[in-house]
Specification:
The protein is α/β, with parallel strands linked by helices and 121 residues long. Helices cover 42% and strands 21% of the residues. The protein is built from five helices and five strands.
Length: 121
């Protein structure tokens, strides 16, 4: 299967960010699923086609880092690319939970695409 046919789950509380991510990912041939919270993703994970996650660290219900910990505990090991404001502590926490990348908002779209391709190795 071509990497361009894979599905990415975007988990971000900001509707504008989710819309922009769908457009960006679609332009590069990726399918996208979007969720406004970690809980919304967890509620539908059984039917999700995603094999890579783009997760905002600052979610309203469960933090992106906590989501990564919960997924790992449940045996779900998809690559996770975190997005966050520039914060060394957040970056350190993301690295501890095995982040494929941690991008500082705002970031160029090409940087996200490169991180996704690298995450799938």
């Amino acid at each position: 299967m071509s990497i361009r046919r894979k599905t990415i789950a975007v988990i971000d509380k900001d509707a504008g960010t989710r819309i922009a991510m769908i457009k960006l990912l679609s332009a590069f041939g990726f399918a996208a699923e979007t969720y406004e919270s970690a809980t919304a993703y967890l509620d539908t994970i059984a039917s999700s086609d995603a094999s890579c996650l783009v997760v905002d660290v600052q979610l309203g219900d469960i933090s992106g880092v906590e989501l990564a910990r919960q997924l790992a505990a449940d045996g779900v090991h998809h690559p996770i690319i975190f997005t966050a404001t520039d914060n060394d502590l957040v970056r350190e926490q993301a690295e501890k939970v095995g982040a494929a990348a941690c991008l500082t908002k705002p970031f160029p779209g090409q940087l996200l695409i490169e991180a996704i391709i690298k995450a799938w190795g």
